[in-house]
Design a protein that fits this description.
Blueprint (H helix, E strand, L loop, with lengths): L3 E5 L11 H19 L3 E6 L7 H12 L12 H17 L1 H15 L3 H25 L4 E2 L9 H10 L4 E3 L2 E10 L5 E7 L7 H13 L10 E7 L3 H13 L8 E7 L2 E2 L16 H22 L6 H21 L7 E2 L2 H4 L7 H17 L17 H11 L1 H11 L3 H20 L7 H24 L9
Parallel strand pairs: 1-2, 1-7, 2-3, 7-8, 9-10
Antiparallel strand pairs: 4-5, 5-6
Helix pairs in contact: 2-3, 2-4, 2-5, 3-4, 6-7, 7-8, 9-10, 12-15, 12-16, 13-15, 13-16, 15-16
The chain binds one RNA strand of 77 nucleotides through strand 5, strand 6, helix 8, strand 10 and helix 12.
RNA sequence: GGGGCUGUAGCUCAGCAGGAUAGAGCAACGGUUUCCUAAACCGUAGGUCGUGGGUUCGACUCCCGCCAGUCCCGCCA
């Protein structure tokens, strides 16, 4: 059997901007992927972007109305305009019945492969992709785009197969599967709609086609042994329904696993959904830039206080790593199930369970390494002494790493690694505080340098697994 | 009405497969710098783990009821 794990994460929508909700999916998905890669799995990171569906009808119709039929000018539109563009289209769709009618026709055209419609669709996707890629590059996220449109050729056979297996029921004009153990408001069994009454498909259809494809053997499949979906917990019901139907249809082979990894909302310090003062959704790009700006401000203040001089490059790089690391760590260190309060002040704080604290600990260790004159790979570096209480505690903490990784592989909770890291840093900082290193006699010094080295390696590896870059100095 | 998730110190949260006096951080108060980056370390104070039952030698942890908050529930994703 294959050892391929598919992690489905990030998944923004075309013509919409990425926001903090996508950030959670992106960061958690990336970290889970990294941990599975470390454990020797073949990991396929998939970006299930919303690049198909009814919204494209209105977008393309709007596009044709505004830019005539040659569609050349759209190449100059920027994403923030595209978001405006989306809003305007939506407004017209909601208010103009004639526009709505043309939009619906446009969806059919697109889905049947009309050349002009496809061209317009591609233009829209390319615009969005540029913007998404910039964020992924900034965050150092590797992900493969395979949007909803990819599964378009397989949608019809989903319906056919469900029909064949006599699972599909027609109700109020729509084709659906009734779910066990779930009721609607009237107390009747809840349907999962697979085909709308107008004949169109929806996200349940796409998700089912995706499950089939991902478990199938090549050429028309990925032969995955496990699929992991990282989305907000608002979609829990949807996935429970989709998984149930996939099981009924026997599309999930024996010994394969499928998991929804839900996460809570990102809230402001007021406990409500994170918004700008004007009540608008905060753009992910702005949020990341703000974190880096604040990190830079802190750094500059410290350099001034300590009368230090650093190059422009050092300042830019250090603030970027601290700022982005702080955002990632704040998110990952929470139990993903619960909502969490987003606070720049807390995540960038130099104390407590934050990225700057962890990065600083590593910097301290590397400082020792720079000032010592031993060669690390010499034969002398075998000896470890653990007479002092803080040495013993550090050794015990270092040995726990494997156990933590195994538990995350099982339960998909990256916050446990954060917890471990924080404890490791606390333990190290006590050791650092309580025992001298460089001025000790040879054997003791070697032993303690060894412990420092092991701690640094563990810290680096752990931070890497969280997708956080490290620094030599800060 | 049905279902999901949450409810642990003033605040933000850990507590994984049940095991000893329930742990951190922040905030508050006090202390430590001839020494490797003090962005550190040490100490004090602070909790009937929402509530009522049950299972168990033993429950924050498992099961059931209730209360509160939040999210989802037919053609958006």
């Amino acid at each position: 059997m294959s050892n391929k794990v598919i992690v489905d994460f990030s998944s923004p929508n075309i013509a919409k901007e990425m926001h903090v909700g996508h950030l959670r999916s992106t960061i958690i998905g990336d970290s889970i992927s990294r941990i599975f890669e470390l454990r020797g799995y073949e990991v396929l990171r998939l970006n299930h972007v919303g690049d198909w569906g009814t919204q494209f009808g209105m977008l393309i119709t709007q596009l044709k109305d505004l830019y005539s039929n040659d569609l050349e000018e759209i190449g100059n539109i920027k994403i923030s305009d595209l978001v405006e563009f989306y809003k305007e289209s939506k407004k017209r769709f909601d208010n103009e019945s004639e526009f709505q009618k043309r939009s619906r026709e446009e969806v059919v055209k697109l889905q049947s492969g009309d050349i002009k419609s496809i061209k317009a669709w591609k233009l829209l996707c390319d615009q969005s992709r540029k913007e998404f890629d910039e964020i992924y590059k900034n965050l150092k996220i590797k992900i493969e785009e395979r949007g909803e449109s990819f599964y378009n050729p397989f949608l019809k056979s989903v319906i056919d197969d469900l029909n064949l297996k006599k699972i599909l029921v027609e109700d109020q004009g729509a084709k659906c599967v009734f779910l066990d153990g779930m009721n609607n408001k009237e107390g009747k069994p809840l349907p999962l709609i697979i085909q709308k009454k107008d004949g169109g498909f929806n996200y349940a259809t796409t998700d089912l086609a995706a499950i089939r494809y991902r478990f199938n053997k090549p050429p028309n499949g990925d032969d995955a042994s496990r699929i992991i979906y990282v989305t907000d917990h608002g979609q829990a019901n949807h996935f429970a329904g989709v998984f149930q139907v996939a099981k009924k249809a026997k599309w999930i082979p024996e010994n394969r696993q499928i998991d929804h990894v839900p996460f809570g909302l990102v809230q402001g310090i007021d406990g409500k959904k994170l918004k700008t003062r004007e009540g608008e959704t905060i753009r992910l790009k702005d949020l990341l830039n703000e974190a880096v700006r604040r990190a830079k401000e802190d750094l500059l203040k410290r350099l001034k206080d300590e009368d230090r001089y650093e190059t422009k490059e050092f300042i830019a790089n250090t603030s970027r790593i601290i700022g982005l690391g702080a955002v990632k760590y704040a998110d990952l260190s929470q139990n993903r199930i619960t909502n969490y309060q987003f606070s720049f002040d807390k995540m960038l704080s130099l104390n407590g369970n934050t990225a700057p604290y962890l990065l600083y600990t590593l910097v301290r260790i590397l400082g020792i390494k720079r000032k010592n004159d031993f060669v690390y790979d010499s034969k002398d570096f075998q000896y470890v002494n653990y007479e002092h209480k803080s040495e013993w505690k550090l050794i015990r903490k270092l040995l726990k790493f494997d156990e933590v990784i195994i538990s995350i592989e099982k339960d998909l909770m990256p916050n446990r690694l954060c917890n471990y890291l924080f404890e490791l840093c606390q333990t190290f900082n006590r050791f650092y505080d309580q025992v001298p290193i460089l001025k000790e006699e040879k054997n003791i010094k070697i032993s303690r340098l060894n412990l420092c080295d092991l701690t640094a390696k563990t810290l680096k590896l752990s931070l890497e697994l969280l997708g956080i870059e490290t620094l030599e100095r800060m």
